[in-house]
Design goal:
The protein is built from 4 helices and no strands. It is mainly α.
Length: 91
């Protein structure tokens, strides 16, 4: 279990470095006299969104057959690509 916790921490930590959420929190903190309020708000939002992802992932994992999980992975990958293309196109 500790290995799962540490690998998940490392993966999420690396994925979050420099992303739009971190830049947004940086911007909010630079404009606020209450950094703890920014920290608590951003941390709570990350905890809630992570909890939702864990619950949905658990439900999907239990109800979908193992061979269809590959299509979920492909769909998620395609969605990331589409969002990236859309972001570049709108920039």
């Amino acid at each position: 279990m500790l290995q799962t916790i540490l690998s998940t921490f490392a993966l999420v930590f690396m994925a979050e470095l420099g992303d739009k959420t971190q830049i947004t929190v940086f911007t909010l903190a630079s404009q606020s006299y209450s950094p703890w309020a920014i920290f608590i708000g951003a941390g709570s939002a990350l905890l809630l969104s992570s909890a939702i992802a864990v619950v949905l992932g658990t439900v999907v994992g239990r109800f979908l057959p193992a061979h269809t999980i590959r299509f979920v992975h492909y769909g998620a990958g395609a969605l990331f690509i589409l969002i990236g293309v859309w972001t570049i196109w709108k920039a």
